[in-house]
Amino acid sequence: MHRRWLFLSAAVVLIVTSLTVVFLSGHKADAGRVSAAPTPATGAEVTPSSAAPTPSARATEASPSPSARRTAGKKSPSATTPSAKPSAAPAAQPASGAAPLAGRIRPGVTHQGVATFYQTDGTGACLYDASSDVLTGAMNTADYEGSKACGAYVVVRAASGASVMVRITNECPGDCAVGQIDLSAQAFAKLAAPSAGRIPITWELASPGDVGTVSVRYKTGSTQYWCGIQVIGHRNPLARLEVRSGSGWRQLARADYNYFLAEDGGGCGGPIRITDIYGEQLTVDGIEIRPNVVQPTRVQFARH
Fold first, then answer.
1. Up-side HSE of residue 110: CA atoms within 13 Å toward CB?
2. Contact 114, 201 (CB under 8 A)
3. Where would a tag sit more exposed on the chain, N or C end, judged by fewer CB atoms within 10 A?
4. How far is residue 136's CA from residue 260's CA, in Å, rounded to a whole number?
5. In 136-229, which residue ranges form alpha helices assigned H by DSSP?
6. What is the DSSP letter of 291?
7. Cα–Cα distance for residue pair 182/169, rounded to 1 Å
8. For residues 207 and 236, is the Cβ–Cβ distance under 8 A?
9. For the structural domain made of 215-296, what CATH number should be given?
10. What fold does the segment set 55-70+93-206 form as a domain?
11. What is the pLDDT of residues 152-175, one digit of tens each?
């Protein structure tokens, strides 16, 4: 009887031990499956495209210097937009394959907005001289994009079907919404009666025919130790300006008042290479440091 009790006790211990081992093995296997589960997508996969900068980035990039802002001809209150409408901006669209260096203003993209007008002689934030060309416009801050719009030609269309081509010579800050262009009075009159004050429009980038050749100007105060370089009369928007540096080229930063700056003077007075948004490059030699003198060249970008 005593041996039978010992036998039964040993059997019970063996069964309990086996169940414990099975339970623990199953628990460890489940834990292994949980730790092997895939992790969420990395931050690199959800980073916004560079073609659609955040509002804070746009404000930084397109912030104009106070002295360069539009000062001529304030409009009536009815011609003022109280706030921008980001939904009207085409910034989220991918860059055109035909213009890999384009910014917000790209070929083949139709922008929607409104047109207003003011009295201007063609001067403004782009720091161009007064011009006999009366068909000009001041671009809203977002699409001005830190002076990238300077010199661009755009075709503006009204709902009536009337259209006009203007050259961007100025910025319309603050009271101009995304997509809006403040036209010269003469340009607006080709779309509607001045009494309208404000009309809905669409506009697109243009690459006009007879625009002459490119000119170059060194900024007032430029020397071999510091200089600012401006390009005037380019058919297509500019993407880069470089100066010769040793055996290569050095790209200069573009100020929001439409000059490319060599803060240390490197390359000032030497060969200049300019590139448009389509990637075409033009090299200009023989441009001396003659501050505030417009010096013509014999080159121009191709039409698109």
1. 5
2. yes
3. N
4. 22
5. 141-144, 185-189
6. B
7. 11
8. yes
9. 2.60.40.760
10. Barwin-like endoglucanases (2.40.40)
11. 999 999 999 999 999 999 999 988
List residues bridging with 132 in a β-sheet.
none
Provide the residue type at 120 as one letter.
T
Look-up: residue for tokens 């990395």?
A: 42
Question: Could you give the CA distance from residue 267 to residue 249 in angstroms, rounded to a whole number?
Answer: 9
CB atoms inside a 10 Å sphere around CB 79 = 18
Are 55-70+93-206 and 215-296 the same fold in CATH? no
Amino acid identity of residue 15, one-letter, is I
3-state secondary structure (DSSP) of residue 184: strand
Residues 6+ apart with CB under 8 A from 112: 88, 179, 200, 201, 202
Query: Is residue 276 within 8 Å of 236, Cβ to Cβ?
Result: yes
Write down the number of H helices and E strands in the chain: 5, 15
Express each pLDDT in 11-20 by its tens digit: 433 333 443 3
How is the chain split into domains, by residue range? 55-70+93-206, 215-296
What is the Cα–Cα distance from 34 to 171, expressed in whole angstroms? 58
d(CA 46, CA 49): 9
Q: Are strands 163-172 and 136-140 parallel, antiparallel or unpaired?
A: parallel
**pTM (predicted TM-score):** 0.71
